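Deliverable D5.2: sample structural annotation.
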Amino acid sequence: MPSFEFEKDELDHLVAYVRSLSASAKTDNKPVSGDPARGRQVYEHSGCSGCHRIGSEGSVFGPELTRIGAGRSPEYIRESIVNPSADIPDEYNGVTVITRDGKRITGVRVNEDTFSVQLRDPSQNFRMFQKDDTQQVVHEVKSLMPAYDRLPQEDLQNLLAYLDTLRGNLNAGAGVKKEKGVR
């Protein structure tokens, strides 16, 4: 990408415009009230890492959370925990395949065309089904993530405080060899 030179006020307007494109991004830098250390315990004890990844730990079944505190507002994160079906990113749409013998396999839809559907199951295995060989393919309208709407208020607040601290790379890309000259 070529470099550009802007006057300070032009650059300020450009930055403000780009930030406005992410309406859900946090606009202030005030920390969320609660105890982040206890929030991490809530995260670990609630099984969140079975679907989510932070840094190099956890699963890729659900959205990655390494930078969630930098990219989403506390209100959005709270809603995603207590009502995950309110906003399901397209890349995490659920699908259930019902085989001819009645077995149900549910996962995240990876790809689908007229003849086949591919999904990633909770064990992170990719599965492919020919639609002709299935009884039915159900496109889920609810999130595959359970709603944590009965989480005690203190636990929820501590979890939000913890997730709000996630703003960095936390070893993202660890072990990846970079080519010379690539930044």
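Annotation notes: The CA atoms of residues 51 and 59 lie 5 Å apart. The chain is about 25% helix and 20% strand.
The annotation will be released with the project's public dataset once the embargo ends.
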